[in-house]
């Protein structure tokens, strides 16, 4: 069986099960058992107790990371991006926005960082700031865990603005599965902050949509039931401008968080909801309704404050407030553009063959367009609740006829369409759209009985089928997480072990790293702290003899080591300078 046919069968698994249930219920007396009725009532009661719901949503993640740390220890950085984010975290935790270029910087060049005009990560600052909070608390992984917990709660909160509480709680439970046993929590690569930023935007848009609907028809809760936020919460808070002012401020804050984490994907999300809110406002706004300063003032203050911080960071790193570190890195190292539609053909100057080999392959693929799109979306399907349950996303399309849920569904599809412009797609790229994606999937669960013509007495079977598929699909992910880091990342454990051993020695050390000609570009050893001269261990690239001599002279007070990184195991030998002639 071909890979495409196997994938098609997996997509058709959930519809096939539901069609089978439809046939089964006609021949067998399947009834809603008392146990399921009690479970449904308990779930509804739990969804109205926000404090208890929040604790139960966070508890599985807390338990999973505690078990992971007990079995495997804290995660060890292995991906280029992780080291880059950790550099930003070390910089921020030291009280600086960037670092001066080191005199020996050519020996310290590495992936996804820049040394000119300053020494800093090329990525937006939010992930580094979160890791910096973790450093101040004792370890950068604590920042990852806090961001993951915040993202889970924000995804649940965003769903509550669009769905009834019991269905929003289901969306929150699905959202928690995105973090348990995945690299969003078990690495420093990111994902949590991106999802949290998008959830703030999505939830704020739901609050503002509720306010507009209530302003137009503020009669009964039943009339507002089809609009975001449900009926009871809207009626309690309106009329008045407090909800609108709060919603605008939150929307502005979410837009800034997106700009500081995933500017392109977050920008698409913010643009979509902005256009939708403008359309909704113009459609339902009463004639001659003044736009008071008390409503827009908090949002303006949030925007001005956040934009000032982002511009200050850009200016400190690149020398220009409108030039992103990302763009500086692309201009220096990447021969191709960030997007497929960019007509860019640069000829960067490389000082190390391993960096030339890597950057000429980064952000580029030789796959045909349809094959590339297929590969990108299958990777997303495998991450976002599995291929069978990703079918729920497709089954959300008929719900576009419902005005109250149309916006998040369209937002989720808009995000999926925007990723076509990116050559290589990873799951955390889509993270800003995690909230609308979960809302669309859970709303599909709500409409499955009607879509597959299950009677009201048999409707619980659809929800049960989805939950069983979720547990079945998620078993493989939990098993993979329990096995710990991949054997392909054993080199990172060796790097961490060597660094720990050197830290136990008196004095400071310089490690000059040498690679074989067939070196794996994904096993990069040369990454350093923000303050290179003050670091106890400095990692440097071996270059020609003259440059190596200059490096040794600069660090003459340090113990010097030569590391053959591609040997098995890596060979570390102390370098004894020859006596002067």
If you had to describe this structure to a student in words, what would you say it looks like?
With 581 residues, the chain is mainly alpha-helical. It folds into 2 domains: 13-18 and 32-73 and 142-310 and 366-482, no CATH class; 488-574, no CATH class. Helix content is 59%, strand content 4%. The chain contains 22 helices and 6 strands. It has helices at 3-11, 13-27, 34-47, 50-72, 80-93, 125-137, 140-160, 165-177, 192-216, 232-237, 242-259, 263-284, 293-318, 325-333, 353-359, 369-383, 386-395, 403-418, 434-451, 460-482, 490-503, 545-554; strands at residues 113-114, 120-121, 509-514, 537-541, 559-564, 571-574. The strands form 2 sheets. The chain has a 4-stranded mixed beta sheet with strand order 4-3-5-6, with helices on one face. A two-stranded antiparallel ribbon has the order 1-2. α7 packs across α19, α16 crosses α17 and α18 packs across α19. The longest helix is centred in the middle third of the chain and has 26 residues, at 293-318. It is globular. The N and C termini lie far apart (72 Å). The model is unreliable at 217-241 (pLDDT under 50).
Number of domains: 2
Please summarize the sheet with the most strands.
4 strands, mixed
- Average per-residue pLDDT, rounded, comes to 86
Helical content stands at 55-70%
**Class per helix and strand makeup:** mainly alpha
């Amino acid at each position: 069986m071909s890979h495409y046919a196997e994938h098609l069968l997996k997509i058709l698994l959930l519809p096939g099960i539901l069609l089978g249930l439809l046939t089964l219920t006609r021949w067998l007396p399947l009834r809603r058992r008392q146990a399921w009725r009690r479970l449904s009532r308990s779930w509804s009661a739990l969804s109205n107790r926000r404090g208890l719901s929040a604790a139960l949503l966070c508890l599985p993640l807390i338990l999973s990371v505690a078990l992971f740390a007990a079995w495997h220890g804290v995660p060890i950085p292995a991906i280029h991006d992780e080291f880059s984010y950790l550099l930003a975290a070390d910089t921020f935790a030291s009280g600086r926005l960037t670092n001066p270029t080191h005199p020996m910087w050519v020996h310290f060049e590495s992936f996804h960082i820049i040394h000119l005009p300053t020494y800093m990560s090329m990525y937006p600052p939010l992930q580094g700031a979160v890791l910096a909070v973790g450093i101040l608390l004792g370890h950068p992984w604590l920042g990852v865990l806090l961001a993951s917990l915040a993202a889970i709660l924000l995804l649940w909160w965003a769903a509550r603005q669009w769905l009834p509480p019991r269905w929003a709680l289901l969306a929150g439970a699905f959202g928690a599965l995105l973090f348990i046993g995945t690299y969003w929590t078990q690495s420093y690569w990111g994902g949590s902050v991106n999802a949290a930023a998008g959830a703030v935007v999505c939830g704020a848009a739901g609050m503002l949509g509720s306010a507009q609907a209530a302003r137009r028809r503020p009669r009964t809760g039943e009339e507002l039931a089809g609009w975001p936020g449900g009926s009871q919460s809207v009626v309690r808070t309106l009329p008045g401008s407090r909800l609108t002012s709060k919603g605008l401020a939150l929307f502005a804050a979410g837009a800034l968080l997106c700009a500081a984490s995933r500017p392109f994907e977050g920008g698409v999300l913010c643009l979509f909801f902005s256009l939708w809110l403008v359309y909704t406002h113009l459609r339902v706004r009463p004639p001659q309704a003044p736009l008071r300063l008390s409503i827009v003032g908090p949002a303006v203050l949030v925007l001005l404050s956040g934009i000032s911080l982002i511009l200050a960071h850009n200016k400190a790193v690149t020398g220009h407030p409108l030039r992103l570190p990302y763009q500086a890195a692309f201009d220096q190292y990447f021969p191709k553009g960030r997007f497929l539609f960019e007509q860019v053909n640069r000829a960067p100057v490389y000082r190390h063959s391993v960096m030339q080999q890597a950057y000429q392959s980064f952000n580029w693929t030789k796959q045909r367009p349809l094959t590339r799109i297929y590969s990108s979306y299958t990777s997303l399907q495998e991450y976002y609740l599995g291929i069978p349950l990703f079918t729920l996303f497709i089954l959300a399309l008929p719900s576009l006829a419902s005005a109250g849920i149309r916006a998040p569904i369209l937002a989720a599809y808009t995000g999926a369409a925007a990723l076509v412009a990116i050559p290589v797609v990873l799951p955390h790229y889509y993270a800003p759209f995690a909230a609308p994606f979960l809302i669309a999937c859970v709303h599909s669960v709500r409409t499955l009985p009607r879509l597959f013509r299950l009677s009201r007495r048999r409707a619980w079977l659809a929800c049960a089928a989805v939950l069983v598929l979720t547990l079945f699909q998620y078993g493989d992910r939990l098993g993979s997480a329990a096995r710990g880091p991949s054997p392909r990342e054993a080199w990172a454990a060796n790097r961490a072990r060597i660094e720990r051993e050197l830290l136990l020695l008196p004095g400071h050390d310089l490690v000059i790293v040498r690679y074989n000609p067939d070196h794996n570009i994904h096993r990069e050893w040369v990454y350093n702290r923000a303050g290179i001269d003050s670091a106890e261990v400095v990692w440097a690239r071996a270059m020609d003899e003259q440059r190596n001599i200059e490096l040794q002279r600069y660090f003459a007070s340090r113990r010097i080591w030569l590391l053959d990184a591609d040997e098995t195991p890596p060979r570390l030998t102390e370098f004894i300078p020859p006596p002067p002639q």
